[in-house]
């Protein structure tokens, strides 16, 4: 299984359970690993056979900008479903971080895996 990854994608989101959080944008960080068979893209040198990480990044940013959530869990679930469906990804691992949410921690968040691992 080949992995296409995106590290440190920053998006601004309306997210949180407190009233003050509902009035501001907060910076989230996304690290993403996605299963993708790169052999056809490699042999043809053609983007149409690759998992376009720019398109994936843009789709995530668009989605987050247009939505509001209380929980990271809700955002992670919705993003993973969106990516699996929109890009025909068979498996992904997503780390969704909310730096600054806990002042005494350098970072907090969650890590999820969705889909089936293995050859595509």
Tally of contiguous helical segments: 3
CATH fold group? GTP Cyclohydrolase I, domain 2
Low-pLDDT ranges: none
* Average pLDDT figure: 94
Number of strands: 5
Tell me what you see in this structure.
This protein has helices at 39-44, 53-65, 72-86, and strands at 3-15, 26-35, 68-69, 91-97, 109-115. Helices cover 28% and strands 32% of the residues. It has one domain: GTP cyclohydrolase I, C-terminal domain/NADPH-dependent 7-cyano-7-deazaguanine reductase, N-terminal domain (GTP Cyclohydrolase I, domain 2), CATH 3.30.1130. The protein is built from three helices and five strands, in the order ββααβαββ. The chain is elongated. With 120 residues, the protein is of the alpha+beta class. The relative contact order is 0.23.
Summarize the topology.
Blueprint: E1 3-15, E2 26-35, H1 39-44, H2 53-65, E3 68-69, H3 72-86, E4 91-97, E5 109-115
Parallel strand pairs: 1-3
Antiparallel strand pairs: 1-2, 2-4, 4-5
Notable characteristics:
single chain, GTP Cyclohydrolase I, domain 2, 120 residues, 5-stranded mixed beta sheet, elongated
Produce a short descriptive summary.
The protein has 120 residues and is α+β, with helices and mostly antiparallel strands. The chain has helices at residues 39-44, 53-65, 72-86; strands at 3-15, 26-35, 68-69, 91-97, 109-115. The chain is built from three helices and five strands; from the N terminus they run ββααβαββ.
